Amino acid sequence: MPELPELNPVIHGKLRLALLSLLSGVDEAEFTWLRSRTGSTDGNLGAQLMKLEEAGYVTVEKRFVQRKPQTLYRMTEAGRAALTEYVQALKQLLGGAIVS
């Protein structure tokens, strides 16, 4: 039996996987946009983004726009590589399974 691939535990969380997937398709995203796209609470979203930041998968920029705080997130090259590896491992794990 072939050895099963390891799935990156940082990415494997449902919300973290969704966040990286969303960020992979844009140059940057505001916290509020990510919240609306995921339906997450502020606290949970902030905690999961912090885990991704600590892993080096996203960067954060905080600034003010017309005196209102704005938090922007960008996926790093390390984040892109980790997401690609995760998807490849998932494909290997699924193998010949039929996914529809």
UniProtKB/TrEMBL annotation:
Signal sequence, start to end: none
All residue ranges annotated as the Winged helix DNA-binding domain in the record: 15-94
Identification of the protein by name: Winged helix DNA-binding domain-containing protein
SUPFAM superfamilies xref list: Winged helix' DNA-binding domain (SSF46785)
Protein origin, superkingdom: Bacteria
